[in-house]
Amino acid sequence: MTSGQASVCVVIAAKNAARTIDRAIGSALREPQVSEVLVVDDGSSDATAEVSFGADDGSGRLRILRLETNRGPAFARNHAIANSSAPLIAILDADDFFLPGRFGMLLGGDDWDFVADNIVFIDARNADMALEVPAFAPEPRFLDLAAFVEGNISRRGASRGEIGFLKPVMRRAFLDAHGLRYREELRLGEDYDLYARALTRGAHYKVVHSCGYGAVVRHDSLSGQHRTLDLQRLYEADRAILAADDLPPHARRALDRHERHIRGRFELRRFLDERRELGLARAGLRALTRPAALPAVVGGVAGDKLDAFRARKRTTESGPAAPRYLLAARPTAQR
Fold first, then answer.
1. Which of 7, 21, 138, 164 could connect to 192 by a Cys-Cys bridge, CB 3.0–4.6 Å?
2. What is the pLDDT of residue 4?
3. Would strands 205-217 and 141-143 be described as parallel, antiparallel, or unpaired?
4. Which residues on neighbouring strands pair with residue 141, listed in sequence order?
5. Could you give the C-alpha distances from 5 to 98, 154, 172, 229, in angstroms and in order?
6. Which CATH architecture has domain 8-218?
7. Euclidean distance between CA atoms 229 and 262, whole angstroms
8. What Gene3D superfamilies does UniProt report for this protein, alphabetically (predicted)?
9. pLDDT of residue 311
């Protein structure tokens, strides 16, 4: 299969994305390798579906699937995959976009089951401005399970940049051969979980440093982004992978660290829930009955306050952040 063939299904799960969905769709339809664009309107209460229909280029490649109630991104993506047929599947978030020529650069060769490229992160306040991205040397490499999992453990004070943010193109044949789909109970980390399970089944996950994906960064609250249940289900997903008997030792150690990291975030969220419902004193007493969780709670509260202060300072004392790249890359020549 060459990079010039129309062989890619682009899946866009969207909820209340009327402001950005036309840009996402337009960037997908612009690519000649794209044979299908499936937008799943996941129970939106705004004009997401109507704006999506308005972005149609008349090529017959765009379909809008509407869900009456919100089912979450994992269900929406599985629904799109079940209703598509292209041999390659690419995920695009509803407020992100592909850079021109992404698939022409990305799809060469047949040595991969998953292939991902660099991401440029763009401040939402600059999202509508013209963007010039350098041409980076591809410098391909392959991720194993341990490297992938380690790259998904976030560090406080570090910029958003975990490897889990990569948006690989996936071969449908590999997913089908191993019965792989998104875990629909997950509303956080569903991409991470799918890719980790694929790597346990021997997936060749190739990464190139050329940049073809634009991710829009919004400065939202830190601890309140996810439900407590979402974090619990994610660390339970790690435990499900850890239950396998044949994991390499270095992969098992990485998964164990990731599970502890997510479980610590869960304990912090549980404490914040209890503080809101019961008050600080009673929530503190409950936390004392879970001594193993105390380091995560104490460190998390302090860390959240510091991160929130830094975020406010960035917003009030400076303009929009400059674009930055997920992967350190070596420029070649300008496009």
1. 164
2. 60
3. antiparallel
4. 207
5. 17, 37, 16, 42
6. Alpha-Beta Complex (3.90)
7. 12
8. Spore Coat Polysaccharide Biosynthesis Protein SpsA, Chain A
9. 54
**How many Å apart are CA 15 and CA 12, to the nearest integer?**
10
Count CB atoms within 10 A of the CB of residue 139.
Answer: 13
Residues with Cβ within 8 Å of residue 19, at least 6 apart in sequence: 95
Q: Which residues of the chain have pLDDT under 70?
A: 1-4, 127-130, 155-162, 219-225, 300-320, 333-335
Query: Coil, strand or helix: which one is 303?
Result: helix
Q: Name the residue among 269, 186, 180 with its Cα closest to residue 228.
A: 269
Among candidate residues 19, 26, 88, 81, the one with its CA nearest the CA of residue 58: 26
Say how many C-beta atoms besides its own lie within 10 A of residue 295's C-beta: 11
Give CA–CA dist 28/6, Å, rounded: 12
Tokens of residue 258, six digits:
């990731």
- Of the candidates 208, 209, 206, 6, which has an alpha carbon nearest to the alpha carbon of residue 110? 206
Q: How many CB atoms lie within 10 A of CB 304?
A: 17
Looking at residue 217, its pLDDT comes to 84
Residues 83 and 20: beta-carbon distance below 8 Å: no
Determine the Cα–Cα distance for residues 288 and 295; give it in Å rounded to an integer: 11
Q: Which two tokens stand for residue 72?
A: 């979450």
Angle at 73 between CA 81 and CA 14, to 5 degrees: 90
The DSSP code for 158 is: S
User: What is the full DSSP assignment across 94-128?
Assistant: TT-EEPTTHHHHH---SS-SEEEEEEEEEEGGGTT
Its pTM stands at 0.87
What are the sequence ranges of the domains in the chain? 8-218, 223-317
Residues in the chain: 335
Question: How far apart are the C-alpha atoms of 261 and 221, rounded to whole Å?
Answer: 19
**pLDDT for the residue 162:** 67
β partners of residue 119: 213
